Amino acid sequence: MSRPWLVIALVAAVVAPASALAQDGVYGRLRGDLVLSVEVLGGASSRAAGMHAIGSVAVRARYLDMTGVALGYDRSFGGERHDALWAAVDFRPVFLARFAYDLARGPRWLDLMLDSIGVELGAAWIRPGEALQNGGGFGLVVGTGVELPLAWSNGRGLTLRLAARWIDAPAYNAQGTGASDGAFEFGGGLVLRTITRAGLVGAHD
Among 181, 148, 182, 143, which Cα is nearest to 163's? Predict the structure, then answer.
């Protein structure tokens, strides 16, 4: 075999597995059935009292990378305290729809970014530790986000997450203020994710 044909053969051997994964849109995400992730974000919170910096940490667990739960804590800096401990359903319907209709054709970063689009719906404990009359209370959480892969290997990796979240307590549960208490948060940061087998489904390459 001449040297050019040898080079072509080697390139084909390396590219073929990646092409197969691109065709099914999985990229190793179904090697296990449970995706676990931890994220650290920074951004800003907009309230009636003004704009303030926030930091957020959260952990997530998703079945087949499509639906699961999230638990997080948002910390405000500067101005009136508006910390929140929240829990929500984490649902990523784009991955389900694209996988079901075989719409993932690459490039990998675009498939993974589109499939990461999700929504959150849950509840928050606003100003945890404070009594109701001193500012503590409960409210609604609605959020969304998208992730861009920075490093990726068989469903594990590091992603850049951009997210927005609305945390609101209605007037009838307004922490003793007599008015609604809401905050719109937005920001970005890093997500470290891994995948494991919980015995719910078999491996999928």
Answer: 143
Other C-beta atoms closer than 10 Å to the C-beta of 176 total 14
Amino acid at 28: G
> Phi and psi of 33, rounded to 5°?
-110, -5
The structure's pTM equals 0.78
Whether residue 178 contacts residue 172, with contact meaning beta carbons closer than 8 Å, is answered with no
pLDDT value, residue 116: 94
Neighbours of 16 (CB within 10 A): 10
The upper half-sphere exposure of residue 200, i.e. CA atoms within 13 Å in the direction of its Cβ, equals 14
Position 165 pLDDT exceeds 80:
yes
Position 132 confidence tier, pLDDT thresholds 50, 70, 90 = low
What proportions of the chain, in percent to the nearest 5, are helix, strand and coil?
20, 50, 30
- DSSP annotation of 45: E
Preceding amide of 149 cis, omega within 30: no
Q: Token pair for residue 185?
A: 């948060």
* pLDDT tier for residue 37 given thresholds of 50, 70 and 90: very high
Q: Is 55 left (phi over 0), alpha (psi -120 to 50) or beta?
A: beta
